[in-house]
Amino acid sequence: MQQSRFAYCVADGKAARIDIGQAIAATGDLVWVHLTSNNEDAQAWLTDTAKAPDYIVDALTTSESRPRCDAVGDGAFLNLRGRSNEAMTTSDPLASLRIWAVAGRVISVTRRAVTAIDDVVKLIEGGHIRDPGDLIAEFAVAITEELDPEVADLGDRLDDCEADLDADKVFELRRGVTKVRVAAIGYRRFLQPQRAALEKLAALPCDWLHDDDRLHLGSAADRAARMAEELEAIRERSALMHESLTDLRAEQIDSRALLISIVALIFLPLTFLTGLYGMNVEGLPYAKEPWAFDAIGGICIAITIGIIGYFSAKRWFG
């Protein structure tokens, strides 16, 4: 379970959890401070204790954000999007992770819990993270690795819809395809700029970014690009699937309308005949004959057989 604020200090390859109040004065290869911007003290700590520039404080605590990377002096500001275990909207399915990194120090801020943070905490406690470059690279790798199965699941769900394509399941399938398409659009909205942000960070001339860090960032950017391309394919397939379902629905309506028309055409002459002889007036032919009812019934049956035979010959039923 993620805490709203914590700090780690890494020195000589060993990580120790420290109090946030000691983070600014702490020295080592890496000091990592994590805050939650919903916490009332977060902005005050960034401004008063960390002495961060105003534009950095605004970037770290803004409510709306898109993945991006900006060079800030000898450091960098990075905004990423990752999975969250909290309820998210379909239009905004990923939680933001804002990072301000300089040599020896990283400050990260989230508004909602990002599941990748737990993975990174385990890595830093296990001694696998030694400097800011390692920390950011692990964040990028963890986020993209978590999103990969999500994107693959969308493709599998769409495959299932295509395999179950049937006129009797039109409404159920349309709901499923719509959900997949909305999710794909929501993910792609952030993965495309996330790729650009990671590529830009990997190209920044920062001394604290080593060659292996740049390789990991490049790998994460490639994976983000592949996922964005897959999401675009899912979106296009969903549109085609929706068109196919619309065609199936139209065919279903046409077949039902044809059936109704056939039934109406069969009963039209029968209704006329029975309505004519159902009039309570004098002068109807054979109205008083005992065999008149049987004769009219026989005529109706003959008309019905004749119309059905005609439609069958014209293949209206097939």
Can you walk me through this structure?
With 318 residues, this protein is an alpha+beta fold. It is 59% helix and 14% strand. It contains 8 helices and 7 strands. The chain has helices at 20-23, 40-49, 54-61, 116-125, 132-163, 170-203, 211-277, 292-313, and strands at 6-11, 14-18, 30-36, 68-72, 75-82, 95-102, 105-110. The chain has a 7-stranded mixed β-sheet with strand order 2-1-3-7-6-5-4, with helices on both faces. A hairpin with a 2-residue loop joins strand 1 and strand 2.
Helix content: 55-70%
Strand content: 5-15%
Number of helices: 8
Question: Structural class of the secondary elements?
Answer: alpha+beta
Distance between the terminal alpha carbons, to the nearest Å? 62 Å
Biggest sheet record: 7 strands, mixed
Enumerate the spans where pLDDT stays under 50 for 5 or more consecutive residues. none
Rg from alpha-carbon coordinates: 35 Å
Task: Please tell me what the overall shape is.
Answer: rod-shaped
Please state the average pLDDT score.
87
Query: How many DSSP E strands?
Result: 7
Strand order across the biggest sheet? 2-1-3-7-6-5-4
Task: Provide the succession of SSEs.
Answer: EEHEHHEEEEHHHHH
Q: How would you describe the oligomerization state of the chains in this entry?
A: single chain
Keywords:
single chain; 318 residues; alpha+beta; 7-stranded mixed β-sheet; 14% strand
Concise synopsis of the structure shown:
The protein is α+β, with helices and mostly antiparallel strands. Helices cover about 60% and strands about 15% of the residues.
